[in-house]
Amino acid sequence: MATPQTLFDTGIWYALALWPALHTAVSNSWGGPSSTDKRDWFAGAVSELFPALPPALGLATIAASVDLDDLGAVLLQVMQDEFECNVEDDSEVEVALTILRLRKGSEEGNDSEARTLEHRWRNRGAMKSDIKVIDNGPQEEVDEDEFEGFSDDEEMGGVDVDMSDAPALVETERPVKKEKPKPQVDDDGFTSVPVRRKR
User: Fold this and answer.
1) Residue 153 pLDDT > 50, yes or no?
2) How big is the chain by its Cα radius of gyration, in Å?
3) Which family does the entry's similarity section mention (predicted)?
């Protein structure tokens, strides 16, 4: 039978692996070629934030010294530092809550949270965040010799404009203008005015 510490450590790994933000970061190697190893290290680093659990169930336990805010901050910091990923959807709060529930269950000798996480992992199928980042290939380089002698301000008429966020232009069909009928002049030189129909 697994020790409380083993259940806790394994549960942390499942909780992190099921986190869509981390799953996406690892799938797309945002942490470099060793992204999978970083995820494993991440689980160990989170475990080390807590005091070690006793080796057998039923023994006195040490109260967790990590609160929800501290744990959430650590999760965000590691995502930023190791995977260059800013998580802005507050999903770290749910992951932190899961880990704290896991810790409480492990302290009480209750492995239901750990088993639930393992079950979710094994039956996860294709996670919603199976996103791949597509590299559009090398961008066309501009020959800087063409612009020799011009400063950026001169090129833009003295205005510094950043066009990197400008949307792409889309060609649309122009409406066809109705040609006005040519005025009709009768034999006496009078111009006839066409009668407009009421709409």
Assistant:
1) no
2) 33
3) Belongs to the TSR2 family.
Which residues does 32 contact at the CB level (< 8 Å), separation at least 6? Answer: 38
Using H for helix, E for strand and C for coil, what is the string for 94-149? HHHHHHHHHHHHHHCCCCHHHHHHHHHHHCCCCCCCCCCCCCCCCCCCCCHHHHCC
pLDDT digits (tens, 9 = 90+) for 80-132: 999 999 999 999 999 999 999 999 888 888 889 989 999 998 988 755 544 44
Determine the Cα–Cα distance for residues 148 and 92; give it in Å rounded to an integer: 50
Amino acid at 75: L
- What's the whole-model pTM score? 0.60
C-alpha closest to that of 129 among 17, 16, 21, 7: 21
Using DSSP's 3-state secondary structure scheme, residue 91 falls into helix
What is the Cα–Cα distance from 50 to 64, expressed in whole angstroms? 6
Which secondary structure element, helix H or strand E, spans residue 158, and what is its range? none
Tokens at residue 114, please? Answer: 């750990």
Name the average pLDDT for the chain: 76
* pLDDT at residue 148 tops 70: no
Element (H, E) at 26: helix 20-27
CB-based contacts of 101, cutoff 8 Å, min separation 6? 113
